[in-house]
Fold this sequence. Notes:
Elements: H1 2-9, E1 14-22, E2 36-40, E3 43-46, E4 54-62, H2 64-68
Antiparallel strand pairs: 1-4, 2-3
Amino acid sequence: PFQSIGRSWRRVLAIRIALVTRSNLQERTAVTTAANLTLWPGRTWPVSNPNFRYRVFDTVAPIKAMVWARR
């Protein structure tokens, strides 16, 4: 089984990472209107408390060493 995982990793060219932050200040009224935050198309994160402000940071990290190892 472990060898098949190794073969799958060879096909990975990049990793997508998302970080959800929440403010320290709890507002008196709801400031986040959505029930879920969109991390990227097709992937959401549930909002635990709409009285906080949330922000999503995302990036794609290419795995260059994996690409070079294919030679």
